[in-house]
Amino acid sequence: MSNIVEKPKRKAFVPKKKLPSEVALESTFNLHRELVGKPIQRRAARAVRAIKSHARKVMNCSRVKLDPELNKYVWNQGIHNPPKKVRLILRRMANPNHEDWDKVNKFQVIVGFKIVPTFKGLHTAVVQESESD
């Protein structure tokens, strides 16, 4: 009698789908989840940092810029009460200040927002930009 145990076979490696180099995504970001239990005196500033961190993670790009209108929307209710959720539009585009030797900042992300009546039933989607804009 032999006690040979067969090893289970490994699953085949499936790489993640990469986004195209220039793309725009629309997604809902729950700021309340990031801010609950945090000091009330710095919530709006922390919300801005959380939005930037989310954009870095989703778009895989280190250079992130916020639209001034989004910044106003977050700070509109004061430092204590940023909005609970926000519908973000994340646009990754070529960095105009990019130089050939600078591989890290080849792209940049511009974060905008969209006002929606309700967040129910909204999912992350790729935005098709029209040529007329």
From TrEMBL:
Keywords linked to the UniProt accession: Ribonucleoprotein, Ribosomal protein
Entry-linked SUPFAM superfamilies: Ribosomal protein L31e
One GO term in the molecular function aspect is:
structural constituent of ribosome
Q: Which InterPro entries match?
A: Ribosomal_eL31 (IPR000054), Ribosomal_eL31_CS (IPR020052), Ribosomal_eL31_dom_sf (IPR023621)
| Gene Ontology CC entries for this record | cytosolic large ribosomal subunit
Please tell me whether the keyword Ribonucleoprotein is annotated for this protein.
Answer: yes
Q: Which Gene3D superfamilies match?
A: 3.10.440.10
- Write the signal peptide boundaries: none
Q: Which GO terms describe its biological process?
A: cytoplasmic translation
Q: For this UniProt entry, which segments traverse the membrane?
A: none
The protein's matches in PANTHER family, at most eight in alphabetical order, are given as: 60S RIBOSOMAL PROTEIN L31
The family this protein is said to belong to: Belongs to the eukaryotic ribosomal protein eL31 family.
The name this protein carries in UniProt is Predicted protein
